[in-house]
Amino acid sequence: MTIQVAVQVGGVQAFPMTDTPRTRARQAVLDPDEAAELDRLARALQKRVEAADQARAELAKAAGRIAARHGRGGAGAVGARVGWSRQHVLTLAAEHGSNGEEVAA
Fold it and tell me: Coiled-coil regions in this chain (predicted)?
C-alpha cells in the first residue's frame, strides 16, 4: 500500500512523499587509472595535512614562548601578528615560565 501526501509550500505543490522504500543507485566501478589517481592525490593530501599540523604546533610553541618572554602585552602583540586571540596566546604562554622556558607538564 502506498500513501501519497501532497504538500503545499508557499502556494506551490512540493514533491509528493511516499512510504515506498528508496533504493540506492549502483556504485560505479572506477578504472585502474582513475583509482590510482585518486589514491595518489589522497596520499598527497594526507602528507600536507600532517605537515600543516606539525607547522601549527611549532607556531603555537613559538607564540607561547615569545609571548611569555615579553610578559605583559606580549600575548596581544603575538596574537595580532599571527591572527589569534589574546586569550589563546595567553593559554599558550601559560605553558612557559615568565622567562620563556617551557614548563614541565
Answer: 35-62
Cell digits of residue 98: 615568565
pTM above 0.85, yes or no: no
Instruction: In whole angstroms, give the CA distance from residue 91 to residue 51.
Output: 23
Identify the DSSP state of 83. Answer: T
- State the DSSP code for 45: H
* CA 6, chain centre distance (Å): 41
What amino acid occupies position 39? Answer: D
Q: pLDDT tens across 81-94, in order?
A: 999 999 999 999 99
Find residue 9's DSSP bridge partners: 12
| Alpha-carbon Rg for the chain in angstroms | 27
Q: Which amino acid is at 7?
A: V
C-alpha span between 71 and 99 (Å, rounded): 8
